[in-house]
Design brief:
The protein is 35% helix and 22% strand. The chain has five helices and nine strands; from the N terminus they run E-H-E-E-E-H-E-E-E-E-E-H-H-H. A five-stranded mixed beta sheet has the order 2-1-5-9-8, sandwiched between helices. A four-stranded mixed beta sheet has the order 3-4-6-7. 35% of the residues are buried. The mean pLDDT is 96. The structure holds zinc ion (ZN) (2 copies). One zinc ion (ZN) binds next to helix 3.
Length: 181
């Protein structure tokens, strides 16, 4: 049995996680499970930026992966960056095991407007599926509605759907057949 493990990093609301888990199961059709693990993130923290280095967290996330884990998606409220970008919604290893998403900049509140739980959930699902898509070998897609379209701003997340276009869908299928999982 191969699992997609969803791992909260720090406090993440349970309702949010279970909604994400369901959507990921419906999209990828692999068994999913939510795993709680403790992380020491002090090494990833940058006090000058007051943000966390995404790549550092990603390495922790994939450390000691159980053999039945096919893919790992870390979910965090922390604000992520990598040195060449001021912030990230998420990061993933292309064709690798690990992916990471942050809800930090998916909250309306972050932009000074009233919080919208439904919108937050939808944004998280889109970014979670997007980052996991990279782990299945998908690169950024130019189809306007495709979840693999890259998003620099939250408005761009809202403009795309939570689904793969036909081409990306085919690619995931091809991956499955090739790897026989
Ligand atoms: Zn991407
Ligand atoms: Zn696509």
């Amino acid at each position: 049995m191969s699992y997609i493990d969803i791992i909260p990093i720090g406090e993440v609301e349970e309702a949010l996680l279970s909604f994400l888990e369901q959507s990921i199961f419906q999209t990828f059709r692999f068994q999913t499970r939510i795993h709680n693990r403790l992380f020491d993130l002090s090494h990833a923290y940058d006090p000058i930026r007051n943000q966390y280095n995404s790549s550092g967290i990603l390495l922790d996330l994939i450390d000691d992966t159980p053999p039945e884990t096919l893919r790992i998606l870390g979910v965090t409220e922390l604000d992520l960056f990598i040195p060449i970008f001021t912030f990230l919604f998420g990061e993933a290893q292309l064709n690798g095991i690990g992916a990471l998403v942050s809800t930090h900049r998916l909250h309306n509140q972050f932009y000074g407007i009233p919080e919208n739980k439904e919108l937050l959930k939808t944004r998280l699902v889109k970014e979670g599926i997007h980052e996991l898509g990279h782990t299945f070998g998908l690169i950024h897609c130019f189809a306007l509605n495709c979840v693999m379209k890259s998003s620099t701003y939250v408005e761009e997340i809202d403009q795309k759907s939570a689904h793969f276009c036909r081409f990306c869908e085919q690619e995931v299928l091809r991956w499955r057949i090739e790897k026989n999982v």
